[in-house]
């Protein structure tokens, strides 16, 4: 485990409420854990973006600019193939 450092930060009220709700529901052990996980996801996203930008530049240089219509078509196809898996909602009966 890496060394932990103390942080003081101002956040939007709805984000603090989301963190507190995650703790209350058992999704996170603490607000600090929830914030650390969010920072880790953002750092990973930021790390990957340059590679994605390069891929897209190379793709568009070879095949032309990706149009909005192509993006919508790809999105529609991906959604059609998706398998949705959701945990049962608390208090609901199985279907």
Number of helices: 3
Structural class: mainly alpha
Radius of gyration: 20 Å
What helical percentage do the residues reach?
55-70%
Integer count of domains:
1
Order of helices and strands: HHH
Overall body shape: flat
Mean pLDDT: 92
How far is the first residue's CA from the last residue's CA? 42 Å
Low-confidence stretches: none
Keywords:
mainly alpha, single chain, 95 residues, 3 helices, 0% strand, flat
Could you describe the 3D structure shown?
The chain is mainly alpha-helical and about 100 residues long. It has one domain. Helices cover about 60% and strands about 0% of the residues. The protein starts with 12 loop residues before the first helix and ends in a 14-residue tail after the last helix. The mean pLDDT is about 90.
Helices, strands, pairings?
Layout: H1 13-24, H2 31-63, H3 68-81
In short:
The protein has 95 residues and is mainly alpha-helical.
